[in-house]
Every structure is written in structure tokens, then in C-alpha cells.
Amino acid sequence: MTAARLGALDPTVFELAARRVMARCDELARITSTPGAITRVHLSPEHARVNRLAAEWMREAGLQTRQDAAGNQLGLLPAADPEAPVLMLGSHLDTVVDAGRYDGIVGVLMAIEVVRLLQRRDDDTSGVDAPARSPFDFGLEVAAFSDEEGARFGKALLGSSAVAGTWDDAWWELEDPDGTTLREAALEFGLDPGRVSEAARRPSELVGYLEAHIEQGPELHARGEPLAVVSSIASARRFQLVVEGEARHAGGTPYDMRRDALLGASEAALAVERICSTQHHIIGTVGQFEAFPGAMNIVPGEARFSLDLRGEFDGERDRVWDQISRELDDIMGRRRLRWHTREVHNAPALFCAPLLQDVVGEGIRSTLVPGSAVDGSILGSGRPEDPTTLFSPAGHDGMAIGAITDVGMLFMRNPDGVSHHPDEAVSLGDVALGIRALAEAVAHLGAEHRRT
Amino acid sequence: MTAARLGALDPTVFELAARRVMARCDELARITSTPGAITRVHLSPEHARVNRLAAEWMREAGLQTRQDAAGNQLGLLPAADPEAPVLMLGSHLDTVVDAGRYDGIVGVLMAIEVVRLLQRRDDDTSGVDAPARSPFDFGLEVAAFSDEEGARFGKALLGSSAVAGTWDDAWWELEDPDGTTLREAALEFGLDPGRVSEAARRPSELVGYLEAHIEQGPELHARGEPLAVVSSIASARRFQLVVEGEARHAGGTPYDMRRDALLGASEAALAVERICSTQHHIIGTVGQFEAFPGAMNIVPGEARFSLDLRGEFDGERDRVWDQISRELDDIMGRRRLRWHTREVHNAPALFCAPLLQDVVGEGIRSTLVPGSAVDGSILGSGRPEDPTTLFSPAGHDGMAIGAITDVGMLFMRNPDGVSHHPDEAVSLGDVALGIRALAEAVAHLGAEHRRT
After folding, report:
1. pLDDT-based confidence at A211, cuts 50/70/90?
2. Interface contact flag, A287 B303, Cβ < 8 Å
3. Which residues of chain B lie closer than 8 angstroms to A310, CB-CB?
4. Which of A228, A305, B260, B414 could lock onto A289 through a cystine, CB 3.0 to 4.6 A?
């Protein structure tokens, strides 16, 4: 199948595919550990349920399914040559706590639709029961990663890191909030921790990795455009910080005798905002914060908080961390507090491969030429000759997968820029455009691959 | 028994009594829900255990014991006239989380020793088995209150409020951190919530209430004095505050689109410190603080924190709360956040009764006259002619009991001013002086009472 042939398809097939994706997002949203909200973390019973459902949908789309040794759900559409490498398409099915229904999930379901649209059956000669296969020199594989958010064990990208072969056995001792280790959770899920390396793929097995994702910010909406090429994924570091002071009686301890850890941590959180907000493309967030012993009438002797620090460039991000560290020294010194930190995540910026940026751009161009768009209201509002390119401050599975293969990403417009929240949204029309653009991108890559 | 007769006792009896008190403080410290630390909250299994032990010690000292309908442990030494009112002596046996071993506890154990020292048996005529009785026109009753700290249900003074007849049935619905209501906890403890009013005492039943307590600050230590008369107990209000913003993705949400509840709450905590620290005898403390949903990669949409606000005078304290409220309006308005609060405790300042201040002062004077002190090292460092008088920024059971009777308090020196912390301390010598001063105070009151 070529890009030209895909363009000749009835545009309503993309809308039908998008309707199925939206309905399935709703169906997965009901699989949650928190009734009335969406929370689905790594190696939970909900994880097992969505994997089973995704596998069913993959098989229904003609894919050969398996769950790998890290709990990732995979679906393969092989090439004619069974030894040929694969292009991986996908995203993750886990969520943050009290999440929206599209982050990650929509990308997995769109990948299934794209593979369904692109597959070929050799039914001309051998009948309708012939297995589906990739029309390209490479196979197509849908990956539903098991952990991208890191909501349970603090460490993000566990699923894609296993695939990338960058697993660190120290992670087995990470604990969730209930004190269950990653090792215990894996065993309970039915995985063998000793075999996690079997999930790792070799670079030679892969042509690349393509992912569609909602934008987790307001940029496309502000520009009035439905789709964008992603240029790079933010570099990210995550820290757990501890401030130590002295627990004292709230009534009897005068201010000048206090060493209040909570106030030191409060100043630190505000310093992060003050320092980062004046920088370009640097974002620091304190998302967790707790004071101990946590009684109304005791001056807190300890405070713990998290810092998530992202930047477009590693060096810039590290320079800002140094600045924050110096500021913490000042604050804690002035308040006679001690502070220390543990880095729990460190991922360098991931630059999307030029070829994959090109094919995603071609996919968007092919999709948004006047007359071809599914959603008439969007027509003409895009700039097909010059697809928008965005930097992603949010992390994605590509950050891990980038260790073994080229990565490309497609962003879809997010009406309010809201993500990691129940109000997270994407329109049916934009998902239809996204499915088409991703399919076009894969077809362009197929054509490029054949030429090289 | 008169003050003069008490003064004729061998001073070593006070040291022996103090040794028993210190040993029992150590024994009670081992009854905790948190091994390695001291935590003993209202209506817990540990509460039941310390009540049983206190009752045993009370009986061993000749008292008639009972546990009242609010879980307070009481021990009575009746007067010759069984209808006579009683002077209540005591404090509380509950603790904050990760507490010291003296706050409250030492006052209960000292009261037992004082009653043991003062009691009379009519053994001259009727033999050794005659029951002990008060030598005064009033009975003596030791009260070990069940809840002063409020560590479990947020509301402090539950035990003494029941005794004061100021119980509010709305409190039954208060929840502990596990979601157990006060009603459920009472039932589980074996109490009948419908009968809590039976714990209430009438003003006519009481002569007054006297309590010995460690100072929860550094003032006596700084002055080099072992004991002080307490003039008043701080007025206190406690609030639970909620800040509401919007949970957003930590990577994708630019600073100008954020409504970060944690940063608003951090500013609020610092504002409390800034406002209160410039006032005389006003102390505000943020002891609890939590952010939600509490994930590293989500901008917090909600933050909850507590405020404990104390002052020597109610009006001054309320004026400062108004100032804090206006500051919160400013902060939250600027950050596009909402805030609301629930007041969980409001106690007016309690002024100790002039007569009880006088007898406590007499008790200290009688104790610290040169030659009578137990601990020679302290001798002469006090100023017996003019006992130190201190305001108590910390709350005490007298705040509740003050609703039905006169209150008097005696403070003992606290070497580092530390309280609500494992390092809380008081010396054996100061406890011995305290026991003597409290016994002398009761004897002086007995003499006063006879005169009137």
C-alpha cells in the first residue's frame, strides 16, 4: 500500500476508526482502582484487565498478540519476510492517579486502527482466511506499554525501559505507597522478575518507533491547528527531597527557637516556581508534599516533597537544578534546617529522528490538504505546507525506546490543554485526522524504506 | 494536715515520690501504638491499658477508682463528709504522635503522690484497715483525662470537655485518619455514647482544679528557676484549611496556566509565620500539610493544611486571624485559587483563679525557702519571696474544666524547653520540688477553705 492509495480511501473510514477509538477510551476508563475516577497503575489487577482487552482488540484487528516479560501488551503484524524488522507503534495504558482517559491510551488504540487500515491479506489468491500481513518491507507492531507514568513506584517508563534493555535490577526494590516492592508486585501479577531481560529488543529488530499522543498543553489549540510534528521530548529529572528540623510543641516554642521543616519546604517550593518561571522551556513542579509528625499542635520536624524538573536541553535543566540547590542551601541554612535529596529519575532530552519527523510531517500534509480532511470545520485552518513542530515538555515512552531505535511523534490538539486530569479531552475529528496522518506517515516511511 | 505539718515531713519523702513518678513515666512510655516511639491516642487499646495501670496506682495510694463515661480515669479520696465537694488534681494520659513522656502524664502521677502524702487514716482509733480520707473539708480527686491533645480526632480536650459538661454531640461524627468516627471508637472502647453526659460534673461538686505540668518552653530554664505559678492559659483556635486549584499535567502546563494549590498553601504557611512572629504572645503553627492528588508529575489541584493559633488574649488572637484571612484572600486571589476553612477548636483564654494562683504561689514559697529544698543544687536560685508567674501558650485541660470551676496551675522547669517530642525532659529534683509545692498548695487551700 502506498501513501497515494491510502489517500484514495473513503474518508469516512478514518471517522469510523476514530469513533471506535473514542468508544474504547471510554471503555478502558471504566477499568480503574478508584470508582468514579480513573487510576490504573503498573502491575495492578486493572493493568491485567486492560491488557486482556487490548489483546482482544489487537487480535480482532489481525495482530498476533503476546504479553512480554515486563507486562507490556504487544500485537504483531509481520512482514512477508518473518525475519524483517518491525516498526513499533504505540503508547501506554497505565495512568496517573485520578487521570484523564486519553493520555497514552488513545495512542495505543490509534495504532491498532492504523495497523488495521494498512494491513494486507493475500486474499486475491489464497482465500479470505490468509493471515494479515504488513504491506511494507518491515512488520508493524503495536506496543501497549505497562508503565509510563510511574504513578505506583515513583520510577517512570518501567515498561518501555524493559523493552529498551535499560532495566536496572535495583528497581525491583522500589516500593509503592503500601510498601509493596516492584518485585513482589511483579510476582503477584504473574511475571518472573528473573526473566525481565527477555522483554528487551535489539536495535536490529526495529525500524523505529512512532507514537500519537494528545498534546498536554494548549499550544495547538491556541494556534487553531489539529496536529503537530514533535521535535523532541523534554529532558526530565525527578527528586525526592527531605528537610529536617526539629519537632517542637506548637504553643511553647517561640519563633526564634523553631526549626520548622514545613516552612523551609514551603519556601523551597516557592523558590522552584520563582527560578523556573523566569527560564525558557524549563518547568519545575512540586507535586508531593507532606509534613511530619503531622499533628496540628506540633512544629513539623520533617517535611518531604518531590521535584519534577524538565527542560528542552539537558545542560540548561542541570544548570537550573544547580541554581535550585544553591537556593535550598540558603533557605535551609537561614532556618537552621538540613536538607538532602535522592534522584529517582533522570532522562536526557530525546530528539526525534529527522526521517521520522519528515514522515510525520508528510502524514500531516497529506491529511490536511483541502478536500481530504474528515472534519470539514478544520479544513483550511491547518497550514499543510508547513506542519507545526512542537517540543514536548511532557515525557513519553519514546524517551526510553530512543535508546535502541529512532523515535517519531505526532501530537493532537487538546482543547483546554488539560492533561493528567479527568477533564483531559481530544475531539473525535482530531483523532480521525490523527489516525489518517499516522497511517500516511507509516506509508511514507514504507516508501522511503523501500527506496533505501 | 496543715501546711506547717507538711513542712515537718522528712524532705526525702518528696524525692522518693518523685522517683516513683519518674519510673512510672518510663513505664507508661512503653505503652504506645508505635514501637520505638510514644503515641497514645484517645480510645485506643493503649488508652485502655494506661487507664488500668493508673487505676491500679490510684488504688495502691488509697483512692476509690472509676472510669467515667468519657474514658477519663478517676480516683477519689473522699472527705469525712461524703457530700463535700472535691478539689480535682490531675492532667491527661494521652499523647501527641511521637511524643515525650512527661506532658500531661507527670501531672497525673504527681497528683497521685500528693494525695498519698496528704491523706489521713483514722487509724488512731479504729485500726489500720480504716479507709484513707481527705484531711480537708473537701475531698481530693485525681483525674487522668482521656484526651487533651486531640491527636486522633483533631478536636482537643475531649475528656475534660465531657467532665465540664460542654460536650457537643456533633463531635461523635469526627473521624480519625483511618475514617473511624469518634462514635465508633467509643463503642469499640466499651463506652456508651448515649451516656457521655454522665461524665459531666456540676460546679457545686468541685472546689477547684489544680494541675502540675512541665513548662513547654524555655522560660524557667532561662531564668534558672524550678517552678512557676501559671497566670493564664492561651486562647486557642484551630482550623483545617483547604486550597483548591486545578490538577494539571506537570510537563504540559505553562506557569501562567497553572492554578497550583500547593504553592498557594506554601505562601499561606509562610504568611502565618510572618504575621504572627511580629506580634507579642501570638503563635501560629502549620503542623499538617498535604497536596493532592500527590503525584510527582501533576500540578496539585488541592492542598490541605492546619493552623493552630494561640494568644494570651482572645481579642488579639481574633484580630490576627482576621489579618491572616485577608492575607489568604490576597494570595489565593492572585493565584486564581479558592480557599475555605473549618474551625475545629475554639477555646477562650483561661485566667487562673486569683485564690488558686495565691495558693500555688504559697506552695512554691514554702518549698523553696532555703534549707527545705530537696535538690541542694537548686537552693537559693529560686526567689521564694516572689514566685515567677508565667503565661502558658500551650493548652491544658484547665481550659475545659474552667467552664465549671476555678483553675490553678504549677509549671516545672523544662531543661531545653522541648515538648511534644521524644527529647522532652524534666529533672527528678524539679519533680520532687513540684510534688512538694503542689502538696503545700493544696494544704494552703485547705486552710483557706476552713477559714471561709
Report:
1. very high
2. no
3. 250-251
4. A305
Does the distance separating the beta carbons of A289 and B300 come in below 8 Å? yes
Question: Which grid coordinates are listed for A265?
Answer: 519546604
User: Per-residue pLDDT tens for B185-206?
Assistant: 999 999 999 999 999 999 999 9
For residue A105 the three cell numbers come to 491510551
One-letter amino acid identity for B231? S
In this complex, do B234 and A215 lie within 8 Å of one another by their Cβ atoms?
Answer: no
**Residue located via cell numbers 505539718:** B5
Nearest to A420 by CA among B201, B273, B297, B348: B297
Q: How far apart are CA B92 and CA B397, in angstroms?
A: 7
**Left (φ > 0), alpha (ψ -120 to 50) or beta: where does B56 sit?**
alpha
Q: For position A124, what pLDDT does the model report?
A: 57
Query: Are A205 and A68 in contact, with CB atoms under 8 Å apart?
Result: no
* Cross-chain CB nearest to B287 (options A217, A266, A299): A299
Domain residue ranges of chain B, discontinuous segments joined by +? 3-233+349-451, 235-347
pLDDT tens, position by position, B80-125: 998 999 999 999 999 999 999 999 999 999 999 999 999 987 655 5
Q: Smallest Cβ distance to B394: which of A103, A252, A393?
A: A252
> What are the tens digits of pLDDT across the range A368-407?
875 443 333 344 444 456 799 999 988 899 999 999 999 9
B257–A417 C-beta distance less than 8 A? yes
Q: Which three cell numbers stand for residue A351?
A: 530528539
- For cell 495492578, name the residue: A44
Closest CA to B272 of B287, B290, B288, B284: B284
Cβ-Cβ contacts under 8 Å, B221 against chain A: none
Pick the CATH number of A3-233+349-451 from 3.30.70.600, 2.40.50.140, 3.20.20.105, 3.40.630.10: 3.40.630.10
CA distance B66 to B73: 6
Q: Do B251 and A310 touch (CB under 8 A)?
A: yes
Evaluate whether B264 touches B339 at the Cβ level (below 8 Å). Answer: yes
Give, to the nearest 10 degrees, the angle between helix B12-29 and helix B428-451. Answer: 110
Instruction: Tell me: ipTM over 0.90.
Output: no
Option in A216, A252, A295 nearest B249 (CB): A216
The pLDDT tens digits for A68-114 are: 999 999 999 999 998 999 999 999 999 999 999 999 999 999 999 99
Tell whether the torsion through CA atoms of B129, B131, B132 and B133 is positive or negative: negative
B399 with A229: CB under 8 angstroms? no
- Collapsing DSSP states into helix, strand and coil, what is residue A325? helix
Pairing of strands A338-347, A235-244: antiparallel
Q: Are A420 and B290 inside 8 Å of each other by CB? A: no
Indicate the CATH number for domain A235-347. 3.30.70.360
3-state per-residue secondary structure call for chain B: CCHHHHHCCCCHHHHHHHHHHHHHHHHHHCCCCCCCCCCCCCCCHHHHHHHHHHHHHHHHCCCEEEECCCCCEEEEECCCCCCCCEEEEEEECCCCCCCCCCCCHHHHHHHHHHHHHHCEECHHHHCCCCCEECCCCCEEEEEEECCCCCCCCCCCCHHHHHHHCCCCHHHHHCECCCCCEHHHHHHHHCCCHHHHHHHCCCHHHEEEEEEEEECCCCHHHHHCCCEEEEEEECEEEEEEEEEECECEECCCCCHHHCECHHHHHHHHHHHHHHHHHCCCCEEEECCCEEEECCCCCEECCEEEEEEEEEECCHHHHHHHHHHHHHHHHHHHHHCCCEEEEEEEEEECCEECCHHHHHHHHHHHHHHHCCCCCCCHHHCCCCCCCCCCEEEECCCCCHHHHCCCCCEEEEEECCCCCCCCCCCCCCCHHHHHHHHHHHHHHHHHHHHHHHHC
